[in-house]
Amino acid sequence: MATTLTLKSGTSWPDTWQRCLSVAPEAFRDDRVLNLWNASWQADGRTLPATSPVDGSPIAGPPRLDGVTAHQAVRAGLDQHRAWRHVPLEERRARIAATLDALAEHRELLAVLLVWEIGKPWRLAQADVDRAVDGVRWYVDGIEPMLDGRAPLDGPVSNIASWNYPMSVLVHALLVQALAGNAVIAKTPTDGGVATLTLACALAAREGVPITLVSGSGGELSQALVRAPEIGCVSFVGGRDTGAAVATAVADLGKRHILEQEGLNTWGIWNYSDWDTLSAVVPKLFDYGKQRCTAYPRFVVQRALFDEFLAAYLPAVRTLTLGHPLAVDKRDDPYPRLDFGPVINAAKAKELHDQIAEAIDRGAVPLYRGRPAEARFLPGQDTSAYVQPVTLLGPPPSSPLHHAEPFGPVDTIVLVDTEAELLAAMNASNGALVATLSTDDRSTYDRLAPQIRAFKVGHGTARSRGDRDELFGGFGASWRGAFVGGELLVRAVTQGPAGERLPGNFPDYQLMPSVG
Where are the transmembrane segments (predicted)? Predict the structure, then answer.
């Protein structure tokens, strides 16, 4: 008989919220989170209601500021910046190190917040916190040579990031930027992560790190967070539509920028036979429901190998597990090990369902659909934000699934007969962050990989954003501005010798670093 699942002990949203109130009472009220600007927590902004993608229940919403107040926050950030840039490196390093210790101390609470706010399974929520802490420690330990001959920017760094990696992308960037001598400003993502970021920023602010954290509409705050003359650099992670508007603004102003945008990352199969290796990696590619910038939602497969590809792919995709990330058999059981939980919200789930239905209606062939009966849910819970894994063969050119990243657990497969078709299909989105080519012949890989328009191309293995000294960027429309990762992240947010050309993808030049 099936076991009735229950919520893991001590992980309810009310329990989690009370822990936030206890750990950082300066940043949380009984009914809301606060904005952080001018070095103090402010009970301003209009708080909007929010629900958890996990079960549709109410959680903390963002306290949205208006444009006028956002400009005040930016001006205060410039005052912080002018003071912080003169703080000796050893003191900056000590304050960042103390922040990392505090984040590590509250690792479990940050991870539970990530589960409730953006639906991350426990394993991946912990990994997001750990990657932030461990990644910044690498910079703390080795920052001196990276800053040799360099100075902070003239104004603070403004950060606008998507909701999917609040810790390992956004908090990581904030702390490295501050370590390099800049005050930092961040906008909470509209779709989730406000409490996670509030707690992390509270721990940093206690150590004297000059952080501003505000919420609001991107359109209303863009004048302050992107165009304001006080801003020294804009760092953006998100979709191409919003990113294009930011790119236009920073190009007009000649402002330093780092704009990471989506692209259709592809996995090519050509003259390949190591199917056991491919089968082992397929479930890992569905981590967090493919809601990440380095997900692989497209397989481009040599037609002659399609039967062997399916024999490896389908048994692997059938092993995927999804459901409520905190649902257990008994209240004191370990956290469940899931590949993914919900997508970010019910609206996104509906969008994906509609795109799948439309693609099939226009000729795509459904090869696999997960079965809802096998998902792990609490009795009677809201499941409107959950999407079962789906695999479609031949998405029609009229479908968004043909040319854009779905940002959900949807794989599409395109069959090709020639190397030219393979390359055209792998370059469908005018630039990508990562790609992989699985082929038995190394010389074939060496010949084709340089023609794939992705910043990182793996030979039979997945590529990722990377940590520590691994560089990161993108080709084409997937990236604008300075590349990051390793020493390049520090260079992107500091000033070097006169006339310096940063590696990156700029309106008037493209300069590529050496990458593996």
Answer: none
Task: State how far the Cα of 65 lies from the Cα of 49, in Å rounded to an integer.
Answer: 15
Measure the CA–CA gap between 100 and 207, rounded to whole angstroms. 10
Dist CA 80 CA 212 (whole Å):
10
Domain with CATH 3.40.605.10 in the chain: 13-261
Could you tell me which of 8, 38, 34, 39 has the C-alpha nearest to residue 21?
Answer: 34
In the predicted model, is pLDDT for residue 228 greater than 80? yes
Q: Where in the chain is the domain with CATH 3.40.309.10?
A: 266-459
Q: Annotate 110-129 with DSSP letters as a single string.
A: HHHHHHHHH---HHHHHHHH
- Which residues, in sequence order, are bridge partners of residue 157? 184, 233
Amino acid at 418: T
Category of 481 on φ-ψ map: left (φ > 0), alpha (ψ -120 to 50) or beta: left
Q: What is the mean pLDDT of the segment spanning 340-355?
A: 98
Q: Dihedrals φ, ψ of 394, to 5°?
A: 65, 60
CB 270 within 8 Å of CB 438: yes
Instruction: Count Cα neighbours of 185 within 13 Å in the Cβ-side half-sphere.
Output: 31
Mean pLDDT across 277-283: 98
CATH architecture for the domain at 13-261: 3-Layer(aba) Sandwich (3.40)
Question: What are the phi and psi torsion angles at 353 (to 5°)?
Answer: -60, -40
Please list the residues that pair with 37 across neighbouring strands: 40
- Per-residue pLDDT, averaged over 40-62, amounts to 96
Backbone angles phi, psi at 465, to 5 degrees: -60, -35
The answer to whether 213 and 186 have CB atoms below 8 angstroms apart is yes
Strands 40-42 and 35-37, sheet pairing: antiparallel
Both tokens of 236, joined, read 């953006």
CATH 3.40.718.10 fits 266-459, yes or no: no
Query: Quick one: average pLDDT of 269-290?
Result: 97
Got the DSSP string for 59-77? EPPPEEPPHHHHHHHHHHH
Q: The whole model's pTM is what?
A: 0.96
Tokens, residue 17: 């919220």
Pick from 191, 98, 105, 86: nearest CA to 136? 98
Both structure tokens of 489: 């992240």
- pLDDT tens-digit series, residues 466-491: 888 899 999 888 899 999 999 999 99
Mean pLDDT, residues 68-72: 97
Cβ pair 286, 320 in contact under 8 A: yes
Q: Does the pLDDT value for residue 2 go beyond 60?
A: no
